[in-house]
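Two entries, shown back to back:
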Amino acid sequence: MNLGWTLVVLGAALVIYPYLLYPVMLIAMSWVRRPLRRPAEPSAWPVVSVTIPVYNEEGQIRLKLERVLAWDYPKDRLQILVVSDASSDRTDDIVKEFATRGVELVRLPRRGGKTAAENATLPHLRGDIVVNSDAAIRVPPDSIKKLVVWFGNPRVGVASGRDRSVPNTDGEANQGETGYVDYEMWIRALETQVAGIVGASGCFYAIRRQLHQHLVPEALSRDFAAPLIARRHGFCSVSVDDAIAFVPRTRSLHAEYRRKVRTMTRGLETLFYQRALLNPFRYGLFAWELWTHKLIRWLLPVGDVLVLLGLVMLAPEDGWAQILVALALLGIALGALGWWWPGQNPPRLVSLAAYVVSGNLAALQSWLGALRGDLNPIWEPTRRPAAN
C-alpha cells in the first residue's frame, strides 16, 4: 500500500507540476516583474532575410513565395532565400521562376536535413534580422512587422510568432493538436514576462543575424537552439502573440506521431548539447524554465506509468483506485481505437484519447532514441495541406 501511494504521488507530481503548477507559478512571477513592452515602430525598418528551407515542395512553394512577396514590408529591405535540401522534384525550377522578383535559391548538393539547410544560408544572409518560415505555413501580411518591431528592444535576441492550429482539408483525425498548440502558446506568453521563452516556433520566428551565425550541428534543432544561444549571449527571447502563423493540422495521427518523435529526439539532443544552460546558479529563472518546460515535461510517460502502476497496486483494497484504473484502461483502449480508426473522422473523444496516448508513446520512443544516441539529421518534412 505504501509503495502504491508513493508511485501515485511521484507520478502525479511529474504530470501536475509541469502542466498545471508551472503556469500558475509563471503567472505569480509575472505580477512582480516589469513586463517587456512592445517597442515603437522604427523610422526605418531593418533589412530582413527570410529563409525557407524546403525538400520536395513543388505542390506548395509557388503559393508560399507569392504570399511572402505580398508581406507588408519594404521590398527593398526584404531578402527572400529558399534553401533546397537537394530536392528531386520541380521545387528548384519553380523557385527559379521567381528570380526576377528577387527570390534567391541555394541548393544543397546532397540531402543534409533542415538544420544543414539553415546552416547553408549563413554566407548568403544580408539582413540584420533573419526570419525563418516553413513552406506549408501561411503568415498574414502584417505578421512580419509585428515580429520584427521587437528587435527595437536591444535586449531581445529572438522573437517567435504565435502558431494557430487550423483544420486541414483532409479530415479531423488529429483534433487534439489544436488544444495542445493553444496551451503551448499560452505558456510561451507567460514565459515571455518572466525569463523569456525556451523554444521558438520553427514555423515562424526571427533572430538577430549575429546570433543566427552560430553553427548548429546538423542533428540538432535550430529553432530550439535559437533561444538557448540568445540567452548564452545575454539576450532574451519573446513570444509575439499578434504575429500569427496559421499551421494546418498534420494529415493524420500517424504523421503527427512521427513528427513528435523526430522533434522530441532532436530536442533532447539539443538540450544535452546546451546543457550548461540547465545550471540555475548561472542562468537563474531561465534554467528553471528550461528544466520544467522541456526536460520534466518530456518525462510525462514516466509519470503516467508510475500513476497507473500505483493505482493497480492500490486497486485490490480501494474502490476509487479500481475506478481510476478502469478509466485509464478505457482511455488507452480509445487511444488504440483512434490509432487504427478506418477513415479520417473519428469521434472527438476517440481522437483526443488517441492524441494523448500517441503523445506518451512518442515521448517514450524519443527518450529511448536519445539515450541510444540516435542521430537523425536527414529531414523528412511533415507534409501538411497548405493553410488557406
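entry 2 starts here
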Amino acid sequence: MSRFFKNLFSPSNRAKIFYLLAFAPLILIVYYQPGWPFAVISPAYGFILLTLKKDKLFSRDKADNVQKIMGVAVVLGSFFVYYPLVYLFPKATLYNVANYATFIIGLFIAFFEISALREALSSLFLIVAATLNSLLFDWLEPLLSPYINHFVSLMSFILETLGMSVTTQYPDIITIHTPSGSIPNVFTWGCVAGSSIVFSIILVVFLLEETAQPRTKLLWAIVGICGTLLTNIIRIATIFLSYQFYGFEAGREIHWYLGYVLFITWLVLFFYMFAKRETIARQIKSIPNRLSRIQ
C-alpha cells in the first residue's frame, strides 16, 4: 500500500492525477444538476482557474503521509455531503457544487502542503458561485424589484427602435404584438440580473487573480460588468425578436440556451481583450492622431 501511494504521488504523476481527479466530478454535476448548463459554468471556470495555477501549485511541497490520508478521507466524504445538506436545503441535488468544493479541498490536502489551500480560494469561490447566486438574488430581489420599471422602459425603447409593436404595462410587463397574436412577458430580476451576477463574479475573480495594477483591474472590471449587462440586454432583445418572427414556441426553445452562448462568447472575448489590453490602449490613444490626419 505504501508503494502504491508513493507511485501515486510521485512528481511525474502528481500533476496528471490531480487534474484528472479534479475534472472527473464535473461529469456528475452535469448529470445531477437540473439547471445545466448554468449550474456547471461556475464549477467549470473554477477548474480552469486551477489549471492556470499549475506551475504555482506544483512548486509547493507535497503533503506528508498523514495529511494524504486525511485528504483522501475528505475526498471520499465529499460524495456524502448531500445527505446532511438536503435537510437544510431541500432543493439540493445528489451531487452539487458543495460536494465538488469539498472534493477539491480534499485533493489539495492530499496533494500539497496545507498552506497551498490559499491557492484554491478563488477557484472554490467560483465553484460555489452558482449556489451563492440564488442566495444573493433572494437578498437583492426586494431591494432591486422597485427599479424593474426602468429596465422595462429601456427594453420597450429598444424593441420599438427595432420596429416592433409593443405595449408596456408598468411596472413589469411588456406585450409584443406579432402577426400570430399578442405575447405578454413578465420581467423579474431573475431574468434581468440573475445570470449577470454570476458572470460578473467570474470576471471580477479572474481580475483579482491577475497581477495588473489596481487601476487597470478596476477599469477592466467596469468594462467586464458593463459588457455583461449589455450582453443580457442583447439576449432579451433577441428572444423578443424570435417571438416576433418565429412565434412563441421557437422563442421559448432558445430562451434557456441563448443566454449561456452569448455570455460565454462575451467571456472569451473579454479574456482576449484583457490579454491584448496594452495593444488596445495604444490603438485608442492613436485615435485623435488618426482623426487629425483625416481632417
